[in-house]
Each structure stands twice: as C-alpha cells, then as structure tokens.
C-alpha cells in the first residue's frame, strides 16, 4: 500500500501506444495505473496471457534484446 500511495503522487498521462499490464494481461486503463503498477510487485507475471492477447489484437513483431533467445522460443510456443 505504501508504494501505491507513492505512485499516486504522480500524474500518469495516457500512453501514445498500448502498454500491457503484466497483472491483467491487457492494456493499462486510463485510470488505475498506480494500483496496477503497485500490484506488479507481488503478482505473478501473466506472460502467456500477455503474448496471447498481443497475438490476437495486433500483427506483432517481437524483438528480444540481450544475449539470449529464451523469450523468442517461448513466444513461438504460445498459440
């Protein structure tokens, strides 16, 4: 709750591109961003649901940054 109150001291503008919440696996709503960001600390990442959502909504091009290829393999496995 303390972190949520800290986040509420900021004004979050509407994103110019959709930003997917790993708590709900959907785009952040216009209101409630601070609450969802605070929940990320203790909530599991809904990776599979997030990728499934993205594949249904868009024609995504996924880019993996870093030395490995783990995420690329996971994305291929998710239908």
Summarize the structure.
This protein has 79 residues and is mostly helical. Helix content is 41%, strand content 0%.
What layout of secondary structure does this protein have?
Blueprint: H1 2-7, H2 33-39, H3 47-57, H4 70-77
Record keyword descriptors for this entry:
79 residues; mainly alpha; 4 helices; globular
Report the mean per-residue pLDDT as an integer.
89
The number of distinct structural domains comes to: 1
Stretches where pLDDT is under 50 for at least 5 consecutive residues are: none
Going by helix content, strand content and strand pairing, the class is mainly alpha
- Rounded Rg: 14 Å
User: What is the number of helices?
Assistant: 4
Which oligomeric state applies?
Answer: single chain
Question: Main β-sheet, in a few words?
Answer: none
What fraction strand? under 5%
Terminus-to-terminus distance? 36 Å
Specify the overall morphology. globular
* Total number of strands: 0
Specify the helix fraction band: 40-55%
Question: Helix and strand succession?
Answer: HHHH
Verbal overview:
There is one protein chain. This protein is 41% helix and 0% strand. The chain is mainly alpha-helical and 79 residues long. The chain is globular. The model has no long low-confidence stretch (mean pLDDT 89).
């Amino acid at each position: 709750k303390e972190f949520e109150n800290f986040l509420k001291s900021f004004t979050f503008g509407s994103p110019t591109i959709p930003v997917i919440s790993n708590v709900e696996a959907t785009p952040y709503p216009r209101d409630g961003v601070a609450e969802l960001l605070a929940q990320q600390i203790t909530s599991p990442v809904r990776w599979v649901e997030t990728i499934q959502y993205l594949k249904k909504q868009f024609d995504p091009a996924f880019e993996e940054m870093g030395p490995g290829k783990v995420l690329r393999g996971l994305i291929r496995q998710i239908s």
